[in-house]
Amino acid sequence: MSSVAQFRQDFPEFGNTTTYPDSSVSFWMGIAVSLVNPDRWGVLTDQGIELVTAHHLVLAQRDQAAAAVGGVPGEVKGPTASKSVDKVSVSYDTGAVTLTDAGFWNLTTYGVRFMTIARAMGAGGMQL
Prior knowledge:
Layout: H1 4-10, H2 22-35, H3 38-41, H4 45-68, E1 82-85, E2 88-91, H5 109-121
Antiparallel strand pairs: 1-2
Helix pairs in contact: 2-4, 4-5
């Protein structure tokens, strides 16, 4: 099973132990173990656990950042489709990078990666 140290090696963007303390990584890894079935994921089990962990860490950090400035932690927000500042605006085609019926997992790139692999795990054999 993957460890906190292995997770940080595989996902160096979570290397800041102040922003992402070991206790938070361990907490979400513990939840992820329940969501990733090793009988189905096989050799990719650790990767699935790490993607679930990364997904939840990003969402938790968003909540902490919102609370730090007086916002509401846990407020549900979808992917940013457009943003304007003064005379500059930008928009994104979120439909191009979200998965149909993936809901909550579409809130981070880690969730999208997880669901992409999870769906392949249930696809069964392929014949060419």
